[in-house]
């Protein structure tokens, strides 16, 4: 139901969305000086199961097994996803997730740690279209997070994944990137399709009259067992859905938003 206005107004599947997507793809090709877009075999859409958490939050869960793809860890992978409306402009929300100084406010992986961007590569004219590497330093250890951000006039996406430091350093030095394993999670941000509301939080006073709220979708992937033969159990599903719930709670708390 929260996506109804976005679909009915044509934002979701209309020509403006198509043009914005084509423009972003053209910018990627220019910045990468590429002549084609890499493709790989797809297994099609995964089957999603709707569940309701203990807090009453609707969530979708799917599972799959990686047997042969070297680009991600081998084993049983669970993905949990949830969407909600936030009284925050899409621009402010996108900038919030891109700000490494505020990552510890929502990311359970970097809770209590120091986060710093150590590399960034532009892939479009908008400064939000970039790929970056962030280092997350805590007392126990340091990890690297690879983050891909992209935005256009319709939607914004922030996708991130922890990566092995040694392997990533080899890739940066020019070695074969096929050995790096990435299991991405991330956010999709789109306008809610409703005219601006008085309580919408924006980054500037001018945006307050032109931007409505946002529809935020979080998808989080976790390797629950390194053995592809392992069986999926409810404890594993609950652990992933709990991470989604905690992350969404952290986001609302950081933005000083009451339960929506």
TrEMBL record:
InterPro entries: HD-Zip_IV, HD-Zip_IV_C. It comes from the Eukaryota. Residues 45-256 form the HD-Zip IV C-terminal domain. Signal peptide: none annotated. This is HD-Zip IV C-terminal domain-containing protein. It comes from Eutrema salsugineum (Saltwater cress).
């Amino acid at each position: 139901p929260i996506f109804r206005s976005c679909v009915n107004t044509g934002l979701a599947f209309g020509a403006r969305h198509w043009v914005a997507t084509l423009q972003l793809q053209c910018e990627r090709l220019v910045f990468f000086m590429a002549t084609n877009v890499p493709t790989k075999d797809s297994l099609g859409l995964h089957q999603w199961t709707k569940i309701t958490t203990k807090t009453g939050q609707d969530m979708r869960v799917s599972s799959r097994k990686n047997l042969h793809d070297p680009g991600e860890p081998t084993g049983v992978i669970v993905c949990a996803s949830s969407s909600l409306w936030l009284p925050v402009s899409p621009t402010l929300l996108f900038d919030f997730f891109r700000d490494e100084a505020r990552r510890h406010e929502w990311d359970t992986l970097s809770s209590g740690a120091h986060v710093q961007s150590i590399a960034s590569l532009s892939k479009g004219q908008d400064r939000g279209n970039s790929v970056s590497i962030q280092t997350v330093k805590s007392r126990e250890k340091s990890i690297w997070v690879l983050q891909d951000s992209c935005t256009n006039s319709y939607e914004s996406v922030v996708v991130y994944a922890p990566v092995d430091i040694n392997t990533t350093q080899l890739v940066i030095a020019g070695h074969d990137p096929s050995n790096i394993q990435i299991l991405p999670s991330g956010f999709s941000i789109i306008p809610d399709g409703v005219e601006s509301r008085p309580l919408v939080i924006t980054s500037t006073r001018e945006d307050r009259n032109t931007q409505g709220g946002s529809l935020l979708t979080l998808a989080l992937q976790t390797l629950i067992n390194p053995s592809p033969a392992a069986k999926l159990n409810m404890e594993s599903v609950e652990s992933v859905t709990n991470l989604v719930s905690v992350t969404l709670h952290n986001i609302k708390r950081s933005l000083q938003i009451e339960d929506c």
